[in-house]
Amino acid sequence: MFQYDSRLRLPSAEDLPDSDDTPVDNELQDLIPSLLKATLAMLWADRMDWFFGVDMGIYYDPEQPPIVPDGFLSLGVERIIDEDLRPSYVLWEEQQIPIFALEVISGAYRGEFTTKKNKYAEIGILYYAVYNPKRRRKPRLEVYRLVDGVYEFLSENPVWLPEIGLGIGREEATHQGLRREWLYWYDQQGQRYLTPEELAKQEQQLRKQAEAKVREVEERANKLAERLRSLGIDPDSLS
Questions:
Q1: Which of 169, 171, 231, 233 is the least buried, fewest Cβ under 10 Å from its Cβ?
Q2: What is the pTM of this model?
């Protein structure tokens, strides 16, 4: 953990720029981490001890610009600090290093396997993941674990992250009408957690099935009533 001298009265999150003004290369750099965040918000709805940042600066040195992952997860911090939320993630205020950082390569290469990777290791982020959907020969998702200051590659898909209590992996499915490969959270048995969108569709289908079953029962009841009336029997007298 970085050590900060409290006597220096370092700038707060509100004093620091909340963006590096670098445009994303592609919508995927926003959609993929945002999907992970939305799923976490559903899975951990009752927990208030975590924070997932999307395209948010992590300040680790008051004299250096922030490093900005496409997504990162921190545990043991306040999920919501106030109604204005976090403008950025400042280590000397949070006192907690993020446990997971994600980079999505969807256009120009920006040092995800060199300078950024080295910086995340220096900060002490335990897990680092890089996703490059354009790869054909090498793994599109690479997940690393920090061991003695060096990132070691974890080859599974999905990869179980015991300190987080979740796995992360890639799988083809549909999100926002687009069928392609996305990143998802998994349980320890390798079963993928459904996204909020998928759960809503599942509930809608179940509701439609229930409504169809009710209509079917009503139609049968009406036909039976008509049959009884044709035999001179008042169905209401049988209730």
A1: 231
A2: 0.79
